[in-house]
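[Meeting: bench + compute handoff]

Bench side (C.D.) handed over the final construct sequence. Compute side (W.E.) agreed to return the predicted structure before the next meeting so the bench team could plan truncations. Sequence as handed over:
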Amino acid sequence: MGISLLCVIFTEIYAMFGHGVRSTAMDTLFLYPLLGGIAVCTVEDKAVRSLWFCGIATLVAGALLAGILEIAGTASVYTVYFTYMGLGLMAFALGKMLFKRRAQDGY
C-alpha cells in the first residue's frame, strides 16, 4: 500500500515538472504494487513472496521507464523486456507455489 502511494506521489510530481504532460503508463503505475501486493498477501512461503515482489518491482520499473520515455516523446525496446521479465518472475513464483503445494499434498 505504501509503495502504491509513493508511485502516485512520484507520478504527480513528475507531471508537475513535465509541464502537465501525462503518461498512461505512469498514471497506472500504482496498480502494480497495489494489486500485486493484495494477490500475494496470504502466501506464507518467503521465497515465493520474494520472487513475486521482484516481479512486481520489475514491472514497476518498466512502467516507470515507459512513462518517462512516453513523456519525453521517444520509445525503447527495453520496456518490453521489463514486462516479460516481471511477468516471468511472477509466473515462476506461481509455479513454485503450486509445485510446493502439490508436493505437500502427496501428488
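W.E. noted at the follow-up: The two ends are 36 Å apart (CA to CA). C.D. will use this when planning the next construct.
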